[in-house]
Design a protein that fits this description.
This protein is 17% helix and 34% strand. The chain is built from four helices and six strands, in the order E-E-H-H-H-H-E-E-E-E. Strands 1, 2, 3, 4, 5 and 6 form a six-stranded antiparallel β-sheet that branches. Strand 5 and strand 6 form a beta hairpin.
């Protein structure tokens, strides 16, 4: 079967600090909240009971933290298509949640190459992750690390 790649394949040595990989925006809907609640088994009423939320001054259902985090999944954008032939693994992730996200908010994720750590045959591509809402407020920031093969001629 012939190889099919949507993009020119990147190896560790092809990345540059500051390079951006945007991820399409997504509006947080009640249906997404319900699907995430089902998948995660997180049954706290702040994620599904609007009256509970209103009694506590929340304008709508509050998103699960991991529901926000998954919006920065590299697979939702083009990054994995660039490294189909060179990625060895997703090796680390961390994040900080800075502002609440509610049903109806639209999120805009962005991954940016923030550091390149070379090794002999592989290197670590460090991506900073940042998610802003429709008001341009940063709601989450974090780091993702990927182990990527180096080109054989390096």
């Amino acid at each position: 079967m012939p190889a099919f790649n949507m993009f020119k394949q990147y190896y560790f040595d092809d990345f540059t600090v500051g390079e951006e990989f945007p991820i399409p925006s997504r509006t947080m809907t009640d249906a997404l909240f319900a699907a995430f609640q089902l998948a995660s088994a997180d049954n706290h009423p702040s994620h599904y009971d609007i009256e509970y939320c209103r009694q506590r001054g929340m304008p709508a259902l509050g998103a699960h933290g991991f529901q926000i985090l998954i919006q920065s999944a590299a697979g939702a954008g083009w990054f994995p298509h660039y490294v189909e032939d060179s990625m060895k693994g997703f090796i680390e992730q961390s994040s900080r949640f800075l502002k609440p996200v509610y049903a109806g908010d639209t999120l805009y994720p962005l991954l940016t190459v923030s550091e390149l750590v070379p090794g002999r045959t592989t290197g670590v591509v460090v991506l900073s992750s940042r998610i802003t809402n429709q008001r341009s407020e940063c709601v989450m920031e974090g780091v993702q690390k990927y182990l990527i093969k180096r080109r054989a001629d390096q």
